[in-house]
Design goal:
Structural class: mainly alpha
Helix content: 40-55%
Strand order of the largest sheet: 1-4-5
Number of domains: 1
Shape: globular
Largest sheet: 3 strands, antiparallel
Radius of gyration: 17 Å
Number of helices: 9
Order of helices and strands: HEHHHEEHHEHHEH
Distance between the termini: 13 Å
């Protein structure tokens, strides 16, 4: 089951890559202003990155992350599907503190990503229609925000029973062999909807199944082809 989930994640990444090829964006190789230590991801994505680092002899980077992660960083209170559940109930979600310091990502070297092929969806989906360097801000198409949110919901859904949080925190959580093996065991369980046996880890939220998709009415028809393909992958 764990290998299957990683395969599904790869398929979701490929689906998004195909979609993003048609976007008109200002982003290009060497743009790195948005590559900060505020990126979030799931444990499934973290496991994928860890597999790559270990298999390529770069596990020492994990200790660098552990030693140098800034105390001030974005640590989400809610997962994406938790946020969707609040919206579905008509309740206001708790406020999220955002870190605007913009400290460069630990995987950034000379403005290029050391794990580009393994980067989490939070990195893959960030596109701006104008150059961020001009005024240190991005402009994102509202439809793209909807698409990105839906993809995030599906990625969390296939990793239900896992955790969600700051990329550094997820990697530091999974780095010990005991935690990683525990996660791998849970991900191979036949009971994919059981979230009761999740480990307690401060600073990380629990992944949840999709309660409802966050799609504004004006985007529903346009999004149908993508929803159909995502539904087939996540079944």
């Amino acid at each position: 089951m764990q290998k299957l989930r990683l395969d599904v994640l790869d398929d979701i990444y490929h689906l998004y890559d195909d979609f993003s090829k048609g976007l008109t964006v200002a982003c290009k190789r060497g743009c790195a202003l948005c590559c900060t230590q505020n990126v979030t991801m799931t444990t499934l994505e973290g496991h994928r990155i860890l597999q790559y680092l270990i298999s390529t002899g770069q596990r020492d980077l994990l200790q660098v992350i552990r030693d140098t992660t800034p105390r001030k960083r974005f640590k989400p209170v809610l997962s994406t599907n938790d946020f969707a559940a609040f919206c579905l109930r008509g309740e206001d979600p708790p406020e999220e503190g955002y870190d605007s310091s913009g400290i460069a990502c630990m995987f950034l070297l000379h403005d290029e990503c050391l794990i580009y092929g393994q980067r989490p969806f939070g990195c893959r989906c960030f596109f701006s229609v104008r150059e961020c360097a001009k005024d240190a801000s991005a402009v994102v198409d509202p439809f793209l925000i909807t698409v990105n949110t839906v993809f995030l919901q599906f990625i969390e859904h296939i990793d239900r029973g896992g955790l969600f949080g700051n990329m550094n925190d997820v990697l530091m959580f999974l780095e010990p062999d005991m935690h990683r093996k525990h996660y791998e065991t849970q991900m191979t369980s036949d009971n994919t909807d059981d979230t009761s046996n999740i480990y307690d880890s401060p600073g990380l939220a629990q992944n949840k199944p999709i309660p409802a998709l966050l799609i504004p009415p004006k985007h529903r028809e346009r999004l149908q082809p993508i929803l159909k393909k995502l539904g087939e992958l996540a079944t």
